[in-house]
Amino acid sequence: MFRLNKLTDYAVVVMTYIASTPEPSLHTARELAGGTQLPLTTVGKLLRGLLDHRLVTSHRGMKGGYALARPAREISLAEIISAFEGPIGFTECNTTPGCCDLEPSCTVRYNSGVIGKALQHALQSIRLSDLTKPMHESATRGSGTVSITFGSGENNEHDQHHSKPYQPRI
Predict the structure, then answer these.
(1) How far is CA 71 from CA 31, 62, 84, 145, in A?
(2) What is the reported pTM?
(3) Nearest Cα to 134, choosing from 153, 120, 114, 115?
(4) Contact predicate 76/127, CB 8 Å
(5) pLDDT digit string, tens, across residues 71-100
(6) What is the average pLDDT value for the chain, to the nearest integer?
(7) Domains within the chain, CATH numbers bracketed
(8) Enclosing H/E stretch for 56
């Protein structure tokens, strides 16, 4: 099972909260903690990690705070995950060669690499701006294809123009 640790999950929550602001604005750690219902100490730890990976910027002073380092449409979910988890892969041997004694004779190592690349591509395709709107999943029975549509799912001109299905090739 592909699973994120809690800190990574919370980083996605904080980044989505910041990106949900209608216009770029500064957010204090206290505001982010209150808005996301996360402990202030956890938010502080998240902000340090996000600053270290240049996903947010900080501004000091009376009216200081934190803001996205780039527009939300330019930040991928993969970047946020990598900041807290390290390289994205399906198995550890695909991101850290030499970590397993079975590596030379493993019969699924190559396929794990293919799955890891598909996972990386899928997470790279999802933008922070996509997370601020509802996503909709549809699957074609028997095809092995799952599509994710970004947007409200309603049939209106805005969503038709801005929604984009993602179909992983697995």
Answers:
(1) 20, 24, 20, 30
(2) 0.76
(3) 153
(4) yes
(5) 999 999 999 999 999 888 877 777 777 777
(6) 82
(7) 6-132 (1.10.10.10), 133-170 (no CATH)
(8) strand 56-59
